[in-house]
Amino acid sequence: MHTVIQALILGVLTGGVYALMASGQTLIFGVMKVVNLAQGALVIAGAYLSYSLFTSLGLDPFVSILVTTPVLFGAGAGLQWLFLRPLREQDRAELSLLVTFAVALGIEGVLSVTYKTTYHTIQTGYADSSFTAGGYQISAVRLYAFVLSVAMLGLLYLLLERTRFGRAIRATVQNPESARLLGVNAHAVAAVGFGLGAATAAAAGAVYGLLYSFNSGSHYDLISRLLSIVVLGGLGSIGGSIVGALAMGVIASLVAALGPPIWSDFSFFVVLLAVLLIRPRGLFGASLRGAL
Amino acid sequence: MTALLEVDHLTKRFGGVTAVDDCSFTADGGAITGLIGPNGSGKTTVFNLVTGYLRADSGRIAFAGHAFTRPDPAALYRRGLSRTFQQARIFPELCALDNLIVAAGHPWRSLFAPRRGKADTARARALLDEFGLAAHGEHPAGSLSYGQRKLLEFASVLMSEPKLVLLDEPTAGVTPSLVATMERHIRRRHAAGIGFLIVEHDMNLVMRLCDPVIVLDRGARIAAGPPDAVRADPAVLDAYLGD
Amino acid sequence: MTLPGLFRAALFFAALTALPFVLTAHWIVNLGVFTLIYAGLASAWNLVGGLAGYPSLGHAAFFGAGAYAEAIYFQHRDVGADGLTPFFVLPLVGAAVAVLGLAVGWIAMRTRSDVFAIVTITLLFVAQTLAFNLNSITGGSQGIGMPGAPFDVDSYERPFYLVLVIILAFAMGATWAAMRSGVGLSLRAVAADEQRARGIGVHVTGVKLLAFAVSVGIAGMIGAVWAYYVSFVYPQFAIDPLITIGMVLMAYLGGRGTLWGPVLGALILVPAQQYLAYQYGATQLYLIAYAAVFLLIMLLMPRGILPSLSHLLRRRAARASEPADQTPADAVPTAEEMVR
């Protein structure tokens, strides 16, 4: 029982981080109806950036977020503007997949040339410390990561609900045509949406770098997990992706605790399969069987 | 005698809005039935429910004696019910002729035969001729004008020799001459034995062409009968003008 | 396909077959082998990604499956005195992978094409993880070895080359058969508007699965040949996202959905890629190069070379003859042009 609860705690903490990454992905999908296959690569890029800032300037990863988020926000908006906006409306759905895949590759290429392919991780002083509460061990880093994720998600929520621009984004997600008719600048919304998605990746990247060892090729693993989460939660629902992330985190953690660790990696795929077989639209998503 | 299409107590809610409210009516295989109603009365939603593009919350339909609680467009097509869309959905990348041939609705085995089979091609060409699109046979359907696409779509759903055709606003957004053309084609096909259920906004056309006429308002049927009766029905006038 | 078309195809394959006998240098035939590998893969991918409009991003998994199947089967078996047995089992490998593809396709194709891409990417990663971890079957990261082929050293590559020509002919033949039959028409309808296709009686699920199964079966056979060629199957090379990327890129460059497009793409990119690898060594740089070429094509020539060329030629011809209202403003190549 103790193991189970320990795994649950770990699962929730990890799920929180995944939630942050997944919400960025979902936001991008909501705004542009584009599945961003470069989300994983953006997280890894964020991880590398934080790593560099840590090794060269001694900047704690959590602090480095202040730098990396605006940088990746700009990069994300730039990517959208350069590579996605020029696509013709009718081609966009199909080509965006390949375009974002190409972007992911490009990012991987640049990172591997810059940092070589050895694995890195951000080893801060507190990287190995942990708390004990009620007989359960909680890794300090994971706890901080979770808190950060919650904070960033809260910030995202405030942004979307309380600002005028956030409202424009939400309007575009719900009904792009009406939003456009009401004067919302679709291009600006798309660029900002993508930028926000990339910004969440930056924050998540700092955390990812603390928790795991990574190299330029790690984005495949990551994007597979993120996509499973997003499909579970339901494409287009941010709330859904948060729930999906927590659920996945817990499932993966429980599987790792109770069975051979390798199955934990597969748990994502198994859940993806299950979702596709039982309820393709996911927990909170709209029907996936083609739009009317 | 049971009607060809029976719609039984269909209900569909979207969030807080009841788009279709316990709606029931019938459409006969020998008639051109009109389905009218003010904006937002749920006409296209009913179409989508009947043809299986949307799942109803409750209710069922029966077509050609076969009941469907969960109608499926493919199954209905095979049984002889086809529909067109408001936006004229054709396959833009395929040429006009292929748009017709692909709609012939043959069983699996015939897929491996050459795609421009003699019989299908002859029928398709005849249809193209009839609809005035013969010159565009090899052009991609995407290059046709809106009106031409509507004609092409109409022609394509005739390929499977349906019993009932549901037309969703066949004259929306087309020139007056095309309205006349559409009417001509509908009448000709009707004379050949095909039933129609038409959603329309063009009142003149409906009154000329359709009998019976069914009126929806806020998702429910409020009147059904010959056009003259419906035209004079106070409930109908109220729905369109009142509130 | 018209008579000139058939003649061109015959000429092409004749020239292709003659090449290793005329230009016998090892590096040329080796280049030919890899070009054929990718031409076959790209053509196979085209059935699903081009004709049906379902961009599979996991075909490398099936390539790897075929490679492993071949290696595992021959690990402790004799390749025959003439070394041809591994080639004779190819149809079996293809069939086995195709059956696997039916199962995978049935699950993966239940939703629309972007979710399909998601599933196939995940599949790729899962396959790679399986390959790395099922040590008892796949040898894990140590890989699996196959007995070397007892071919004459001077013309070692030639048998592989010729077998790959046959596979390419098969792939193109399947594509051509699809295009001139109801299958291809159905696939293109699915690609254009799947929901509507279903509504007018097109056998959507059936043709999608058929295309997918044939496509991955061919990829599996090519993987098996590759395994025999390189003699040692390592998971990171057998199930490598770069293989998927390569075949997709080539199909897009040449013109996806066309018969000759993927082959053209391979003919252009494989030698270019080998040249770059030779000049600049580093594998990582060509990730960036791939990405760059990919993005350029998507943005500038999304239909690929062949359709863009034919579109240009048609416009020129139309402008030279008929009045303006007959020229489609934004036309797309028709099926005929695709098959020419």
Question: Would you write up a description of this structure?
Answer:
The complex is a heterotrimer of chains A (292), B (243) and C (340). Chain A is mainly α and 292 residues long. Chain A has one domain (2-120, 129-217). Chain A is built from 11 helices and 2 strands. Chain A has helices at 2-32, 39-57, 61-84, 89-115, 140-162, 164-174, 176-181, 186-211, 219-233, 238-258, 261-278; strands at 130-133, 136-139. Chain A has a two-stranded antiparallel ribbon with strand order 1-2. In chain A, a hairpin with a 2-residue loop joins strand 1 (130-133) and strand 2 (136-139). The longest helix of chain A has 31 residues, at 2-32. Mean pLDDT of chain A is 85; it is low at 288-292. In chain B, 35% of the residues lie in helices and 24% in strands. In chain B, strand 9 (213-217) and strand 10 form a beta hairpin. In chain B, the strands form 2 sheets. Chain B has a 6-stranded mixed β-sheet with strand order 6-7-8-3-9-10, sandwiched between helices. The model of chain B has no long low-confidence stretch (mean pLDDT 87). With 340 residues, chain C is an all-alpha fold. Chain C has one domain (3-305). In chain C, 76% of the residues lie in helices and 1% in strands. Chain C contains 16 helices and 2 strands. Chain C has helices spanning 3-22, 26-51, 59-74, 85-88, 90-108, 113-133, 135-138, 157-180, 182-199, 204-230, 235-238, 241-254, 261-280, 283-300, 305-321, 335-339; strands spanning 144-145, 232-233. A two-stranded antiparallel sheet of chain C has the order 1-2. In chain C, helix 1 (3-22) runs antiparallel to helix 8, helix 2 (26-51) packs parallel to helix 8 (157-180) and helix 2 crosses helix 13 (261-280). Residues 324-340 of chain C have low confidence and may be disordered. The A-C interface holds A 35, 37, 83, 86-88, 91, 93-95, 97-99, 101-103, 105-106, 108-110, 112-113, 117, 216, 220-221, 223-224, 227-228, 231, 235, 262, 265-266, 268-269, 272-273, 276-277, 280, 288-290, 292 and C 53, 55, 57, 107-108, 110-115, 117-119, 121-126, 129, 133, 194-195, 241, 245, 248, 252, 282, 284-292, 294-295, 298-299, 302.
